[in-house]
Amino acid sequence: MNLRIKSLDAILATAEKKSLKRSLGAFQLTMLGIGGIIGTGIFVLTAEAAQVAGPGMLVSFVIAAVVCGLAALCYAELAAMVPVAGSAYTYSYATFGEVLAWVVGWALVLEYAVAGAAVAVGWSGYAVGVLEHLVGIHIPPEFANGPYAGGIINLPAVIIVGLVTWLLVVGTKESATVNAVLVVVKVSALVAFIALSVPAIQSEKFIPFAPLGVNGMIGAAAIIFFAFVGFDAVSTAAEETINPQRNVPIGLIGSLVICTIFYLLVGAGAIGSYGAQPLLDAAGVGYIPGSKEMADACSAATDSPLVCSNEALAHVLRSIGHPAVGNMLGLAAGFALPSVVLMMLFAQTRVFFVMSRDGLLPTKLSTVHPKYGTPHVVTIMTGVAVMIAAAFFPVGQLASVSNGGTLCAFFFVALAVMTLRRTDPNRKRVFSTPAVWIVGPLAAAGCLMLFAFLTLTAQLVFFGWGAIGLVFYFFYGRSRSNVARGIMEVAEIDAPVSPIERVLKP
């Protein structure tokens, strides 16, 4: 069976002949990673995680962080070894062949684009609240919510996606600079939350710790997993990174470690200072977040529980005696969450760019703007699609669907790093995954576990999206890919010198 594997030599040569401008350093990559990670997950989805796990969501944070950390170690080796755009798609192409590479690339579309839409919807909720409380401007519900909440269109979400799309067309370095500023804003907001909530922690707020058991904590991990998505997007910027063999691993692992520490402190502060017990029905079963039954239970509640809030962290601060700071945190989230939209769209366009460069998508998509040096065609197309999703769908559903694509990509990255250790052991590895035969299997198993705990709807959407992608591949990409047409940028020969050195050195 012909797997149509594109060698790493050919991948590197293609990137050199039609590459993006290298302009990002270790600091910018770490800021991009933090910008991609800290966002809707911690500012909005904390309430949904609390409804599924209660105070046990602290364990959920740890579970999600461990799975992401294992995947990050695998990503770091591959991204440093193959510093080109495409992330898990590129690694799968060189390891498992064209069909599985397409499946992974198609899953990345689900991850990044849908995640960008989810963050935009989360931002909309904070923006509407800020305008209402601080400025006195009331946005009619019809234009602040999609049909799922009785509205017509989520107009603020559409507007922010449009602005981010324009910024990405202007240029990568400019986007990264703006993102770094926004990262400082939202990190400052989380620091303020931690400083005010942690001293107010009361031990009794943690009892019962796991009201819905172990399954609840793992289920919450499958939700809060979205809060960690974003670090992998750093690897898609490898082709635009100065000294990627050093800087990409720093950006990947550094951003994940920093964010994990923040999340645990924020989670402990929210639970201990205000409480995070789920709402249960008469049978003692927790309501499903985002369901009509959950909405009715929240309407009937008299004590404004955390699980009912659309702006969880700001709600906590207002409730424990710091309304002004709570409003400022909402304002900071309103300013800062667009950085996550930016990171998701940035990563999405780079995946499309490299798939187009390989011939699996129309070559027009890989066109680089003559002035800005960015893939403007695919950036605009992605922006329009994300606008549509953000306009009409709720944040919880979007986040769960995005997690399905993310877990698929992480799973294949874990398999790829182990496979390449066997098939290409002599290739130069500037960064090597430690204990790869332990880390790799654990990362893959962790992804499968969390996928099993996603909602049935999210799982069905994932498989349905994959089926659509395979139809497109067999009708278009299979016959037009560069590998199918025998287009190789470098000869397929054995050589004792490092393929990376052979491609990158003049």
UniProtKB/TrEMBL annotation:
Subcellular location: Membrane
TM region positions: 26-45, 57-78, 99-128, 148-169, 176-198, 218-238, 250-271, 328-353, 374-393, 399-418, 430-454, 460-476
Keywords: Membrane, Transmembrane, Transmembrane helix, Transport
Membrane-related topology note: Multi-pass membrane protein
An annotated GO cellular component: membrane
One GO MF term: amino acid transmembrane transporter activity
Family annotation (InterPro entries): AA/rel_permease1
Location (main, coarse): membrane
Protein name in the entry: Amino acid permease
Native organism: Glacieibacterium arshaanense
Species classification: Bacteria, Pseudomonadati, Pseudomonadota, Alphaproteobacteria, Sphingomonadales
